[in-house]
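Dear Dr. H.,

I hope your travels went smoothly. While you were away I took the liberty of generating a structure for the chain from your last submission, since the lab meeting agenda had it listed for discussion. I wanted you to have the full record in hand beforehand rather than looking at slides cold. The sequence, exactly as received, is reproduced here:
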Amino acid sequence: MSVGLSCNKFLAKIASDLDKPRGFAALDQDEAREMLAGRPVGFIYGVGPATQEKLLQRGFRTIADLQRADEVELMKQFGTEGRRLWRLARGIDDDWWWPIAAPRRFRMRPPLKKTSRILRLSKRVLWRLSEKVSSRLKKQ
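The corresponding predicted structure, in token form, is as follows:
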């Protein structure tokens, strides 16, 4: 599992992909603009094959093309989606993520009775238990 830190959800997702697996990356908005510029327009989440084709037909191949575009012009061509693309190309994302419910707590007990044997658990057993907890949390 990788961790990405940034000023919004879109950039945090990109940052989390930078140092996979099990990495940590931080990305600020200015760095993001430069890094995004050379990427294809399909790199932006929500741009599927149909939207990508429409963008290509209008001369938008890379995110840099969107960065150079006029916001109003993009909105004339693509409506509210044009504004979203213009903003995301610049690393601006107003889409907030709120968890549906508070995270649940998980407990894993080793398959042993609570005796002095618990103190002698091997590193492998503890690792396996932590991997199970991690897996369950990821599924949640």
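Two observations you may find useful: The CA atoms of residues 108 and 132 lie 8 Å apart. The first helix runs from residue 9 to 18.

With kind regards,
E. W.
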